Structures are given as C-alpha cells and as structure tokens.
C-alpha cells in the first residue's frame, strides 16, 4: 500500500512521546537536529530523528576522510504507529530522503542497524541503502534485563572501585559484574549509508575507507558473545533485553520526559 506522508518538523515533546511509546528503546540520542513527524490525514503515524552520534566528526571522517558533521545526518530514532503495515518504514525513509534533499545540503544519510538487539537492517536494505561493514561493540545486560551503554557506567565504576578497594576503575571488572548480576555482551553493529547526490556517489567509489555494496547481512550473520569473564568468552544466543523496569537509563529517559520541556513548549 502506497502512503503519501506529509513530513513536517514537530516539537521534540511530541516526537519523544511518540518514540517512547512505539520504539523498542526509550533511550534518546543526545545530539538531535531535526524531529520529523509523518502525517496521514493530519494524524501522526511515524517519527524519525536526524542528528549525530556521540562523535559526529570522527564518525564521518573515519568513513570519508576530510568530511565533517555538516556533510551528513544520522538516523537517531525511527518508529511508526503499531497500526501501520510492515512496508511503511521504507516509505517513511523515502520521504525522509526527499525532505533532506529539499531542506539541507548534506551529502549522506547514515545509520546503523542494532545487531545487538537482533536488527540486521532489513528496512535499510529495502530502501536501497549501501552496506559498509559490521563491527563488534560492547554493552551491558543489567540484572533487570536493561541494556546499558559503557558511557553510562560512571557511577557503577565508582562502586566497582570501592568493591575492589581501589581509587578508580575505568571498566567494570568481571568479579564485580558477577557480584551484581551484570553481563558484558559483545554484539555486532552494521553500517549503512545513502548517497544524496552525484558527489556523494563519487565519494563512495573513490573517497571512502569502506567498500560499500549491497551484499547485505542477514539474520544468520547476527552474533553475540558473553564477555563478562575475559578468560572465558563464549558465543551465546540473542540476549533478552528489556526496558520495562528501567532504572539505569532513567536519567536519559527522565530528561526527555521532563516537565521543563512541556513548559518550554507552552511558552
């Protein structure tokens, strides 16, 4: 079924409320430039955010030496109302590409498929993105099933240091994780990119460190390693992450639900 989405910038309050209702993870990216709403007959049916990850310049420069953050946007969050058909997200991406071309001068739309959560990027494959590479990245599976990024372990590392009688540690240690019921999980992430003009297509062929292709990863390529014990790493089945009883990501989740955002909206 073909949808004629009306794409509009919307206030972050509406966008975040929608994302935290329909996305599998309520944790929001920090650096967001645009909150796009996708409407059908005036009803909000989808949200997609554009911005950058934690290292905007380094990310693009690693793939395309010489480029900077102004040359691309990264998809931060993307989700649709549960009542929309399965092919709706690829149509939403197509509408996003048209919006970016009309409203910006950037070269690329970049994204990653979250292999740790069992996503190999089928929606990007259906949208004719190019695949660049897969790479391993660590996360923590907390005792309550929550996924926690290593950047968010500052307080736990302080607790870990006290547990060991040390002044400071930079990574949670195996004995501390076992004591707390925490697991360190290594999983794959998958890089995708969409060239927005002829210059971008030329750079993909002659100006990139990656070999971009449409030789896409599939579910069989998903892998997870339990790396809690550094001496006994082992391959495991897909971990069951959940945010139903989130407590370690509450600062991020709470910041985006804060009453101050609503006050800002109604000024």
For the structure shown, list the relevant keywords:
267 residues, 31% helix, globular
Helix content: 25-40%
The CATH topology label is Aminopeptidase
Q: Biggest sheet, open or closed, and with what strands and sense? A: 10 strands, mixed
Under the CATH scheme, which class? Alpha Beta
What's the CATH superfamily, by name?
Gcn5-related N-acetyltransferase (GNAT)
Q: Please state the structural category.
A: alpha+beta
Q: Total strand count, please?
A: 10
Q: What portion of residues belong to β-strands?
A: 25-35%
Radius of gyration: 20 Å
What is the domain total for the residues? 1
Order of helices and strands: EHEEHEHEHEEHHEHEEHH
Return the CATH architecture: 3-Layer(aba) Sandwich
**Overall pLDDT metric:** 91
Number of helices: 9
Oligomer: single chain
Segments where pLDDT lies below 50 for 5+ residues? none
* Envelope shape: globular
Distance between the termini: 40 Å
Commentary on this structure:
There is one protein chain. With 267 residues, this protein is of the alpha+beta class. The protein is 31% helix and 27% strand. The chain has a single domain, classed as Gcn5-related N-acetyltransferase (GNAT) (Aminopeptidase). It contains 9 helices and 10 strands. Strands 1, 2, 3, 4, 5, 6, 7, 8, 9 and 10 form a 10-stranded mixed beta sheet that branches. A hairpin with a 2-residue loop joins strand 2 (31-40) and strand 3. The radius of gyration is 20 Å and the shape is globular. It starts with 5 loop residues before the first strand and ends with a helix.
């Amino acid at each position: 079924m073909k949808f004629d989405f009306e794409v509009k910038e919307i206030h972050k309050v509406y966008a975040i409320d929608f994302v935290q209702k329909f996305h599998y993870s309520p944790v929001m990216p920090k650096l967001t430039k645009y909150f796009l709403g996708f409407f059908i007959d005036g009803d909000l049916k989808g949200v997609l955010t554009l911005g950058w990850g934690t290292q905007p310049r380094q990310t693009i420069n690693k793939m395309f030496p010489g480029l900077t953050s102004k040359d691309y946007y990264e998809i931060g969050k993307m989700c649709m109302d549960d009542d929309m058909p399965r092919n709706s997200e690829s149509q939403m991406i197509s509408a996003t590409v048209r919006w970016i071309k009309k409203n910006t001068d950037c070269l690329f739309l970049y994204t990653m498929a979250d292999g740790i959560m069992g996503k190999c990027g089928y929606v990007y494959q259906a949208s004719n993105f190019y695949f660049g590479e897969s790479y391993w990245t660590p996360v923590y599976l907390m005792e309550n099933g929550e996924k926690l990024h290593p950047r968010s372990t500052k307080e736990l590392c302080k607790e870990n240091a006290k547990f060991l009688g040390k002044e400071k540690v930079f990574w949670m240690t195996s004995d501390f994780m076992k004591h707390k019921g925490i697991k360190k999980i290594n999983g794959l992430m998958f890089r995708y990119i969409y060239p927005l003009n002829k210059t971008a297509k030329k750079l993909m062929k002659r100006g990139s460190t990656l070999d971009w292709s449409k030789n896409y990863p599939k579910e069989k390529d998903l892998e997870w390693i339990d790396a809690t014990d550094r001496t006994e790493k082992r391959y495991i089945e897909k971990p069951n992450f959940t945010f139903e009883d989130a407590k370690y990501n509450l600062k991020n989740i709470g910041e985006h639900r804060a009453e101050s955002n609503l006050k800002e909206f109604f000024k």
